[in-house]
Amino acid sequence: MKSKVTQKSNIVVTDAAPPYEAIMAVLDSSDKILVASHLDPDGDAIGTQLAFAAFLKHVGKDVYTVRDNDIPFKYRFLSGVNEIPRFDAYRGNELFDAAVILECPNLSRIGRARSLLNGGIRVINIDHHRDNDLFGEVNWLNSEASSVGEMTYELFQLAGYSIPPAVAEQLYTAIMTDTGRFRYRSTSPRAMEIAGELIEAGADPQKICDHVYYNLQPSTMKLIGKVLNSIEFHHDGTICLLTLTKEMLSVTGADESESDGLVDYTLFNAGVRAGALLKEIDANTTKISFRSKDGINVAAIAARFGGGGHYNASGCTLGMPIEEARGKMLKILEKEIDRLE
Ligand code: 5GP
Predict the structure, then answer these.
(1) Are residues 319 and 205 in the same domain?
(2) Which domain holds residue 152?
(3) Coil, helix or strand for 82?
(4) Which of 185, 212, 239 corresponds to the end of one domain?
(5) What average pLDDT values come out for the chain (341 residues) when binned by 10 residues?
(6) Nearest CA to ligand 1 atom 9
């Protein structure tokens, strides 16, 4: 991983150190800047998007943010979060000078907001997914980083940005959520050190943790109940499947964003090595979130279906009804576990 490759048309840096000059060269020569992250936004996507937008405003830029989905309730305490416009609030003919795309391995991951990237816009791509397809003019990839929040913090340090408490809170949220509350293997000494520095800068760890994990709406609790009721164990208890149907959303009154993190329950069970949450999007579309332990590479499984993610957490969308998707995924997971035995 630690190498620097300069291509003819774009800059690719796969290193822990930010390509500070290349990023700043694009930002310095741009006024109107769009900051975007991925569909179904999580804490890293939202926290880092807000922090980056705050930094760019601080240095005098005309900053725009965008989202293609609802922001999960648990992140709505973050400063500025209610001002992120939906993609359809834009007319589509705005001409941005540059776009900072965070935590997206490819441009499809920003959803319909992709249509805003026109008119020779210069793209900065900052990500920690191994499968990033280098879509930017400047591409900074650090697959060792716990989160894009951690990477952004390193960039802010080089920029000499004195991080205000609201931004410390946003970046702490990004790191805390993408490390699974400082639990995943990606929880490096540096990630912990940065979290400590963010606390010094004003992030309140208890407040943030409580907002994200212990401040559920009644509809979310009801949805958790329904989804847990669907639990299935297969293959001698090594595979756990959960199902989320549109009917579950309608009877609980929950919206789709309230399902963020539900897939994690699949790995709460002793003996489970691979888990999947199957979400019914419509009669012929199923979204799948995978989680795994040990040597099961769910990023590779998701990639076979046009998705992606990390080794132990990934996702993809299948153009088939939920029952068919469940059968197909179960077979694939069973085969994968057998292959490793
Ligand atoms: P989650 O299951 O929490 O939604 O996502 C787990 C990981 O997989 C995240 O890194 C997320 O960005 C990635 N991921 C989820 N769905 C997709 C997808 O459809 N395409 C790609 N490329 N990555 C995905």
Answers:
(1) no
(2) 5-212
(3) helix
(4) 212
(5) 50 92 97 97 98 98 96 97 96 93 97 93 97 96 97 98 98 98 95 98 98 97 98 98 98 95 96 98 98 94 96 97 98 96 82
(6) 309
The finding on whether 147 has its CB within 6 A of some atom of ligand 1 is no
CA of 308 to the centre of ligand 1 (A): 6
Tokens at 48, concatenated: 């880092």
Angle at 182 between CA 178 and CA 188, to 5 degrees: 90
Both 181 and 56 in one domain: the answer is yes
With a 6 Å cutoff on the Cβ, whether 40 touches ligand 1 is yes
Measured over the CA atoms of residue 24, residue 26, residue 31 and residue 36, the dihedral's sign is negative
Establish whether residue 315 lines the binding site of ligand 1, counting it when its CB lies within 6 angstroms of any ligand atom. yes
Number of domains the chain contains: 2
Q: Report the atom number in ligand 1 closest to the C-alpha of 103.
A: 12
Q: What's the 212 CA to ligand 1 centre distance in angstroms?
A: 19
Q: For the whole model, what pTM was predicted? A: 0.93
- Among residues 183, 212, 241, the one where a domain terminates is 212
CATH number at residue 208: 3.90.1640.10
Q: Ligand 1 pocket, 68 CB below 6 A?
A: no
CA distance 230 to 243: 6
DSSP 8-state symbol, 17: S
